[in-house]
Amino acid sequence: MALEEGARSCLLRVRNRLEQDIKPSYLMDHMISDGVLTVDEEEKIRTQAVELLELLLRKDNHAYISFYNALIKEAYDDLANLLHDDLPNISPSVYKSFPDGCTPYVQTVLSEGGVPQRPVVFVSRPELVNRIREKLYRLQKEPGWVTVFGMAGSGKSVLAAEAVRHHGLIEECFPGGVHWLSIGQLDKPDLLAKIQSLCFRLEQSLDSQSLQRPPNSLDEAKERLRFLMLRRYPRSLLILDDIWDSTVLKALDIHCRILLTTRNRSLTDSVSGAKYEVEVESGLEDNKGLEILALYTKTKLQGLPEEARSIVRECKGSPLVVSLIGALLKDKPNRWRYYLCQLQQKQFKRIRKSSSYDYDALDQAMAASIEVLPDEHRDLYKDLTVLEKDIKIPAKVLSVLWDMEPEEVEDILEEFVNKSLLYVDSNNKPYLYYLHDLQLDFLVEQNRNELESLHTKVVRQYQQHYKDGHPTSGDDECLYWIRFLTYHMAKANLSQELYALMFSLDWVNIKAQIMGPAHLINDYVEYGPILDKEAHQPTNGHFQEFLSLNGHQLEQRPFPDVVQLALSEPHNSEVYRQALVKAQEGASRGKLYIDWLNKSSVESLSLLVIHPHQGSIYSACFSHDGTKIASCGASKMLKVFKSKSGEKLMEIQAHDEEVLCCAFSPDDRLLATCSSDKKVKVWNVERAMLLRVFEEEHEEQVNHCQFTNTTRRLLLATCSNDKFLNLWNLNKPSSQNTVFGHFEPVNHCCFSPDDNFLSTSSNDGTVKLFQVSSANEWKTINVREMFTESDEEVLVKCSTWTADGKRIICAARNDVWVFDVETSDMLLEIRTNRLSMVQYCHACPTSNLLAIAYSNYAVELWDLGSNKKMADCSGHLSWVQRVQFSPDGSQLLSCSDDQTVRLWETKKVHTSSAVCLKRDSDVLFTDEEIIVSAADNCNRLLLATLLGHTKTVLHCQFSQNGQTLITSSEDTTIRVWRWQSGECKVLQGHKEQVRCFSLLSKSPTETTLLSWSFDGTVKVALTHIGEKLQDIEAHREAILSCHVSPDGCFFATTSADKMIKRCARLWPDFDLLSGLRIGHQDCVRSCRFSWDSQRLATGDDNGQIRLWSVKDGSLLKICSRDGKDGMDSLHGGWVTDLHFSPDDSLLVSTGGYIKWWNVDKGEALQTFFPTGSALKKIHVSPDFSTFVTIDNIGILYILQRLM
């Protein structure tokens, strides 16, 4: 329909006035919501009012009306008045009357999609149904949202189900099917479980190869569902029933077709896409209410008594209440007058007033319905009071509660359903039963004084039924108990039972395996006030720390051994105590468990580890109340999560490119972000809505943003590679002040504690201080002058103010400098003595501590008063980009390129007593002790300082008698040391770095050495005289590993060319036999012969391990592929080392973690997860009981098998 001529003329008349005054970006959001403007059109218009009006003249009458309404909503009343008189007259839509299109095809589609069947007694509401269908037809060509909203009990769910019960609609608009998901009030872990269930249902309908492990996070679940809906079920409809919270919609904003029912019509404001609404009036028309009564009593409408109309009016038209009365009249058809009087007396008004919803007649109808139940069934119905809202349960749960056979329970539940006291989801097998929220409210109020005893009954019946152990079947009944048992114990005030359950590794194992770690962590937070009472607080802390730090491991499939994970906890932890007992019991039955002997030197430091993003995290910050953390990075996303549990609260696609910084406003209501896309955005935290976009002032990427510290005069500061600093007043559309002064990109800006000054840090080597009130430069601190010995450029990364505002601290290169603000004098230099660069620093707001982030994965805490390092925070696996103290100084967060945000307790991080070791080491096992030789982070050997190599030492090893130490280096040489005297022989000949070597003979005085290099050669030499015996051209590319068989007859080499070479020994020389190429698709990085010299194990860069026959080169076994998870390799990284047990029955391998294998079966027996990753080598004692390795962050692991 073209725009009416009158409306067109009006637009042309007032066009100049509109172009001058309107802000298009504010209006277009409303027009997009009305469906008259597309996102593409908005992108073209951007902020150009001229373009918007040009487009409007080409649109229809609906666009004119939407534009008029947008002016009203954005308070342009004077402009709206100019358009009012020429508003087009649009006649009410005439909705097409659809015949009943519920064909067998429709029934099949809806049943497969879980759409509820019609109620026992059903009356049609064709006008509302057709209005919903009319909106659904608008989703035929593009994704969008149809919202059905109205009061509780108004029949929204029934209407939504009825609207899709139509052959033509499904065939034309949703040929991919209709999929129903009941939501209700739930938290993030419960939402994850709902989406997991939907994904499983969708995948089950496909071929068996499509079945995958359940998604472990909301992010993964959202992406899995997006893939299924867009690729496997294109043009399908997702129905979300009973939505309470916009966070649910954001988690399901997957650019598909969605119909939702809710009581809050504004929920879809938080998501993008076309949006349509249908309001459901709160009451049925009288004739529809009478129709329900007629159906229940099997009476014609004309034959209903006069009381019928009065009953409908007393029910206020509520379908739920009318159905309750109808069910009563079905059994007692002569009680019309009696039930009318019951409704009119309102004797249950006390209950209704304290209920959540305002229905005058509900309580009377519920009470009357319960009253006619047999006495024994009345008590059983009372037991339903303990159910959570929106939770559906199988009859088997009530079979446990009532101690009856399931069939007997189903008969009783059928009676409740027939009396409209209960609802049934018959799409599930077995059936699931649930109460309407209004019914549950009634029960809770009526039985408020008995709630504790009712919950106690649930717990006692469960304990009696499952006295031999918790259920682990994973069916609906099992899921209910594992999910809600702690809830019932807490409500029953059964504190001792709750302690015993939650402080049990068995429970942790079962719940984490069935429900995932998020539910577990939430339980410890939610029931913390109970668990922390009396002497249980330390134990609660032990379990919370264990789950927070190992949550990401508990998401892996196959599921890890919880006992083995717990053995890495501190010795004083209750978690470790329980694990040790269980491990010793398991070891007595032949199970393999590994204890970490020296872990007391490296305590677990992180309070919480969160993996919020796919990609590097560039910024993370606390909210000012300390309860939330925001993070952003390369994923272009902005995320907010709870600082206690890591539960995600908000997720937004914030920018078109990497998000470089985020910052909370002082009242925590706003979040600012800045990006490589040159834009600055301000978001409403509660609604996750975009409020402002500043995109014209900065000409290059915006590096940093920060709000003032108080709301007294709220400003936002941003700085950019364009060398400028901008100050923004959020009430104005453009920058309040553009600040000049720097000559190179500005990396960072920071307000002083009193907000009077703003510091900026730049690549020009300076820190500048500006007066906020005038935006004038106050002074310049020339950091570049501090580096007098070098001509290289000095990039100042950041600056931070001490709490008193008297000192300012800045970071450049590998140094941190402290300056007096008033005099600009340098007060202190913190020399880190590191080869890495300082990435960021932040001063504690409540103490003299300074946190420093480094590019070598480390975080350090320094005392500014004593200029001493107080703590090392080891744990990150890549560059640490940002650190920040919490407002009270009790916690510290850090974020890294390793995709994690870590939370540390400031007082608990250990002092820097533990030495950070390099991964190249050797170990001497004796009867009484274990001697470890390894270089520290300053390239020193711990046993002695041996100078000689000119480049990095790559490998070191003791001779058999321990008197000689042999080392190889990047300088292409091998050195043989009498380490106690420092005497040294040099072996030369390799052209590239010597990665490793092996000692062949067993004579204490004469040792033959086999060395291999990146030059592709293997060399044989005598160490005691330094004479080379043989050169072998083994590979065309770098040799990555080599091993000699224990019988001395063979050695094997592996290479980057994916080849494995076997060489036979014809004393005293070696001859090349053959190459093994079949199978490995990546670089073959490790090899090891079995002790009987009959088998050869090889490991590659994809984490795969293969076992070969030495005799004929045939493949014997591929070690289990079951360890692959997501994008991880089979071993969490390259397989870097392998060792057989003395009887060749076991194999240990290193990669991202350590694994022990059954050689004959190729199955993994145990896995040890280190704090870091990328393990390089493992040393094994002769009896295969002790294992020593070092991870990539320098932590030493001395592990012992529990016997």
TrEMBL record:
It holds the Pfam family CARD. GO terms for molecular function: ADP binding; ATP binding. Keywords: Apoptosis, ATP-binding, Cytoplasm, Nucleotide-binding, Repeat, WD repeat. The keyword Methyltransferase does not apply. It is found in: Cytoplasm. This is Apoptotic protease-activating factor 1. WD repeats lie at residues 652-693, 695-738, 739-780, 873-914, 946-987, 1077-1118. Coiled coil: none annotated. It comes from Sphaeramia orbicularis (orbiculate cardinalfish).
